[in-house]
Write a structure and sequence with these properties.
The protein is built from nine helices and 38 strands. By secondary structure, it is mostly beta strands. The chain has two domains: about 290 residues, Dipeptidylpeptidase IV, N-terminal domain (Methanol Dehydrogenase, Chain A, 8 Propeller), CATH 2.140.10.30; about 280 residues, Rossmann fold, CATH 3.40.50. A hairpin with a 5-residue loop joins β8 and β9. α3 packs across α4. The longest helix is centred in the C-terminal third of the chain and has 19 residues. It is globular. The chain starts with a strand and ends in a 19-residue tail after the last helix.
Amino acid sequence: MSTNRSTFGSWTSPVTSKLLVGDVVGLSFPLVEAGAYYWIESRPTEAGRNVLVRRSADGVTADVFGSEFAARTLAHEYGGLCYAVYGSTVYFSNYSDQRLYRIEIGGEPVALTAEPPSSRSWRYADPVVSPDGKFLVCVRERHESEVTNDIMVIATDGTGEPAVVAEGHDFFSSPSFSLDARRLAYVAWDHPNMPWDTTVLYEAELDAHCQATSRRVVVGNLNESVIQPRYDATGSLVFVSDRSDWWNLYRDTPTEPVALYPLDSEFGRPAWVFGLTNYAPLVDGSFVATWQASDGSHLGVLNSAGMREVATDWSIVGSVATDGVAFVGLVASPDKPGAVVRVDLSSGAETVLATSFVNTVDPAYLSVPQPIEFATDNGLTAHALYYAPTNRDFDGPQGEAPPLIVASHGGPTASCSAAMNYSIQYWTSRGFAVVDVNYGGSTGYGRSYRERLKGAWGVVDLDDCVNAALYLAGSGRANPEALLIHGGSAGGYTTLCALTFRDVFAAGASYFGVGDLGALAEDTHKFESRYLDGLIGPWPEARARYEKLSPIFHTELLRTPMILFQGLEDAVVPPAQAEAMAQALRDKGVPFAYVAYEGEQHGFRQAKNIIRTAEAELSFYAQVLGFTPAGDNEAIEIENAGAV
């Protein structure tokens, strides 16, 4: 088939802005109980409502509760796992009031916890039900004169008041019962650490009322991140630790923890949200586990004889649950949408339980990511995924290279994913190249790589994003005059730094990005309130460094057009950050646009806002680079447009 030669960015694409939200749902936190499968669906078409979905043993799929409820916790603001199931009874944290509810399948939710002193001020996360079904243990976060975190227990029949099982640390997570309900393992940590820095693993002995009679420190070493404790079928405590530089599996013993399968790969992820799982015990005493290696994700069964890898057709495997004999979890691939699947660990037979969306786009319009490694500062290399512009109907002008969007992920201790994502294909199918950068500080390459960002946020991430762009421009895969950058949250900060401190990019888009690090240190939520101690330095002692690395203190350097997106209910990066940057751009006469959304928090969930954001960013780049987008794309008004 012949193709048309047309300006990059102007190509007609089947990946429309409406397709980003049409029949797309976010899938998370799969679980198996009593022969039924459960998962959370985030639905943009329902204003981002999180719905708990159940698939019965006979294959019937239905929502667990009606439209007046939503399963989402605001603990740590980012939330995470917020439900547990025992038999046919479900316990969940309801978004609108943050109370815990109990519901029998087919019934109506009944509140299990009391009204908090003020709206949403008591929050519950990471719930687990005792093996006998009598008690529910979870993390509780109370917002009163100050924010207090602990682990509480409550009788599942609703009698009595919640009682505290563990307290005295700034944060808690991952409560896990032994099969006899006599022991409870959990993780704790304190400021200024994050859970990927230093954590303590505890084990408490419990009485018949689920109260701790004693407790011991299982692991509590400086600069060791211990996460995801679980008990196996024999009663042994297993956990994930990065003591070897990589998050690997260990078993507790009377002397020292024993590595179960030492590997230069990651069996864990940073606990930005509650309830992340990379392994689960099977009934025979073995484990089903997933790990991330340099060649992608792997799935296997680990027992005393070693690891038996299980082949799958998916390149990304995670969020492990099990019915005791099979893997149930989230999977994805560059060419297949995310799904919840069950994989028979003996035969490899697979059952798809739910899909994020049904791909209706011809693969000839879809770009497949290519892992790249490139040179960066200080004689090091960094990693990224490169997406070439791809559209079966179009080529760019002869001899021209495409515009490039550098994507800077959030966290910053997170990572990009090769999973099929219309949000990337929206750009590549229009003639943009995209490079999704796993800059120094990203997860997936061991603790040493993750700690490149210690004391160097705004430096290492910026250098790596700039060097990714220059590497691709130097190899002819990007137009050096049409380099763009975008990112959200921490990625928004990197974007603002790039557009302020470097003269490399033609334009960029910051999604709820940080312009003033000091203001963030003084005005953010408890979970991250001391995060910058490690990334920048202690506040306010290191004020000079905070100001040196904050774009808002260097407005004299502003000259690059940018578009700012912000949720007005964002408690992580408050709207004042974007508003201050917008005013600085206005005062300097730099072309910019500011788009703010009522009802949105840290990340956009509502379909209309997701659509508007994609179209606005495309319109902004088109006006800056001088092309006309195809189709009925709503234009964005640019302030100081005459300076473009």
